[in-house]
Amino acid sequence: MDEGWIKLHRAIRKNWIWEDPLKLKWWLDILLQANHQERKILIGNEIVLIERGSFHTSTIKLSERWKVDRKTVKRFLDLLQKDNMITLKTSKKGTTLKISNYKDYQAVSEPKKDNEEDNDRDNSEDNEVPTEGTTIGTDKSQISPNKVDTNKNEEELKNENNDKEGEEGEEITPPSPPPLSIPTKYHKLILDQWSEVTYKTWFMDSEIVEDGQDLKIIVDSELRAEAINRSFSKHLGILLGKNIRVEIKV
User: What is the CA angle 240-244-250, rounded to 5?
Assistant: First the structure.
């Protein structure tokens, strides 16, 4: 797997692995070997699905690749697994290594090809929800809610719609979404670490304050508290070197 690239966040410099150049090199090699999308491989006489962010290997292969003994490889992998950076699934046929939270920090918006952009535009038009006085696609017969003469040309339809808008008043424009709020340096770090959607969904409306060695994240619902505890607290604690406490606003 010699083609392509990976994302590397600046926050890695705060991780313990940054302090050891050799272990950092091994960790980057693991990231580079991981599949960027799931695929099937043949192991012996069995077809095995390898998930995105995973790859199949063995301590022997890694020891030969990194030019160290198998015990050193095993100790390093055990250290990563203990810190919840990877999970290992070992069998007689080798080891499947999976990078934890791979989709959170390796997700990218890949550039689309021309034909994909055309398909997206076609799909968006096909899936558009009709509103009063508008058409779906280019078929002039599908005008909602009132049927019109399909023989009328585009200019006539435009004039009719203009007359109708004049009678009914100006069209109400939906309100713009609220601007992105980043009240503290911790909100900024979380936004940089995860996607904007993730930040807006779980963290933007939260209050984040330091309390000694603890970092309190105060949210307004049990749903947000449960999601942050389950999916983000451990990684955030390692990143900041703090104990993360999630509380619900009273």
Answer: 140
